[in-house]
Amino acid sequence: MTPNHTTPGAGLRSSAALLWRRQRLLWWLFALNLAAAWLASVPLRSVLHAVLDQSLESQRLVEGFDLATYFLLRQQPDLPGSMLFPASAVAAGLFLLVTVILSGGVIRELLEDRKLDGQEFAASCVAFFWRIVRLTLYSAVALGIVFGISAAAAIPAGKLGDHFTDGRIGDLAPMMLRLLMLLAALFVRQWFDVAQARLVHNNERKILRELWRTFRPALRSGLYWQYLGIGVLAAASFAAGLWIWAMLPHASMLAAFVVLELVTLAQVAARLWMKAASAQWVALQPEAVAWKIDVSDTEEMGTEEVNTEETIPEETARKTEEPSLPQSGTREADLPASE
Q: Which residue pairs from 238-246 have beta carbons closer than 8 angstroms and sit at least 24 positions apart in sequence?
């Protein structure tokens, strides 16, 4: 573990080392993302087969991926446009649901920096599922407020840009507004990640109170600069991956698939890296409460109620067992003679 107060660079290296030690979480999430995408593509593939089997242009999509042919395909009356975007939306929704279900176990493993066995991981997932669902909904509301303020401010920002004769200067105000929106959304993400880690570490049940108590620590923690660095790396890897994919020959289907999957892996790793940074920071805080889940009680649970018990550190237990010493004012003659 690193000290509580570190530079952003040291914090990034420390959280990256934690992610490397717990990399099995990354591979599991990546595999689940791939499985969700494959399931979501099944109905789309059935529709595409019905259209492409009777088209001479299908060879450009069978032997490779031609972007112009793809856009022409979308204009075909036999292909409902509603089948294209919902497929990706279903994949994203399935992956979001899986990550919410697994969040309790993932965060606990990052907090304790050890491999949880199957029972411990499942117990943590069940114990915190509904609380993390509520926290996710609250984060969606907070992000909606940020994007709503940005959309409301876009109109006056656009009017301000119209006063400049140089179009490049006129576009500066909307660009700055989008940048501020992204920075604000990044802080909301960091705030809720810290709240999620504290919720798991302290076994907190009052979600709104924990959110309110987490705001100031999250603001002063210095984690934002780590989140910003991780976000920049994620954006750079995404842009580089798309550029490499665009430069590949149309017939290189396997290479294109590998590049796009590497881009996906980089984005999942960046998100898990952020969670590792917040979990490590929470684990180093002195006010954290040690607790454990009674795994046997989770088998009979249908809700979020889990029997928990606080654990007393060994040093405190030893102190309570030791006999109290005489006060400083007691004379030696008053003490019982030793054998």
A: 238/263, 238/266, 238/267, 241/266
> In degrees, to the nearest 5, what angle opens at C-alpha 232 toward C-alphas 227 and 235?
120
Collect all residues with Cβ–Cβ distance below 8 Å to 298 and sequence separation of at least 6.
122, 123, 126, 127, 306
Checking phi first, is residue 164 left (phi over 0); if not, alpha (psi -120 to 50) or beta?
A: beta
Q: Which helix or strand (DSSP H or E) is residue 37 part of?
A: helix 23-52
Per-residue confidence (pLDDT) for residue 279, from 0 to 100: 94
Least confident of 23-37, 159-173, 325-339: 325-339
CB atoms within 10 A of CB 276: 32
Structure tokens at 9: 């660079």
Per DSSP, 124 falls in state H
What distance in Å separates the CA atoms of residue 101 and residue 239, rounded to the nearest whole number?
30
Q: Which of 88-97, 110-119, 223-232, 266-275 has the lowest mean pLDDT?
A: 88-97
Q: Directed axis angle between helix 172-202 and helix 85-112, to 10°?
A: 50
Interatomic CA distance for residues 7 and 178, integer angstroms: 28
Residue length of the chain: 339
CA atoms within 13 A on the CB side of 165: 0
Could you give the C-alpha distances from 17 to 56, 123, 142, 153, in angstroms and in order? 52, 26, 31, 41
Please state, rounded to an integer, the average pLDDT across all residues of the chain.
Answer: 76
pLDDT tens per residue across span 248-276: 876 677 888 899 899 999 999 999 999 99
Q: What is the pTM of this model?
A: 0.73
Q: Is the dihedral of CA 13, 17, 18, 19 positive or negative?
A: positive
3-state SS, residue 293: strand
Asked whether 20 and 74 are in contact (CB, 8 A), the reply is: no
DSSP 289: -
Hey, where are the domains in the chain?
8-309
